[in-house]
Design the sequence.
């Protein structure tokens, strides 16, 4: 019943920007979900890059600090990821994820989340 649908991915040159969106449906307690963005590059493990709790507190992986901004709009049941100064290393499938539980750590690992979207592809050319 819970559905997460990402959008906003695409192909962009290094230094460009993208805003990813994640629309959540089928969950009445959206505002209380712990939500995050995770990415997976070809041949690599899925990694957590950003997360936001119900109070709006955010946390980021060191590799994206200063360039990525996660936010949410509870009225629209939508999660966002603003990505600036894109680098070729950012090329990956980006997944929206959510979980109603208390996170086990400041930035939960990608494996922790129970609800997942299908992903949106981000390709950065040099």
Sequence:
């Amino acid at each position: 019943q819970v559905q997460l649908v990402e959008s906003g991915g695409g192909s962009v040159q290094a230094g460009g920007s993208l805003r990813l969106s994640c629309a959540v449906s089928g969950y009445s307690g959206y505002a209380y979900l712990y939500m995050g963005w995770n990415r997976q590059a070809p041949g690599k493990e899925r990694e957590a890059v950003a997360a936001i709790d119900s109070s709006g507190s955010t946390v980021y992986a060191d590799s994206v600090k200063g360039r990525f901004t996660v936010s949410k709009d509870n009225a629209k049941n939508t999660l966002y990821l603003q990505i600036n100064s894109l680098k070729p290393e950012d090329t990956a499938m980006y997944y929206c994820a959510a979980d109603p539980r208390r996170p086990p750590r400041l930035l939960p690992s990608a494996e922790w989340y129970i609800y997942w979207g299908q992903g949106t592809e981000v390709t950065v050319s040099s």
Q: What stands out?
A: The CA atoms of residues 34 and 102 lie 7 Å apart. The first strand starts at residue 3 and ends at 7. The mean pLDDT is 96.
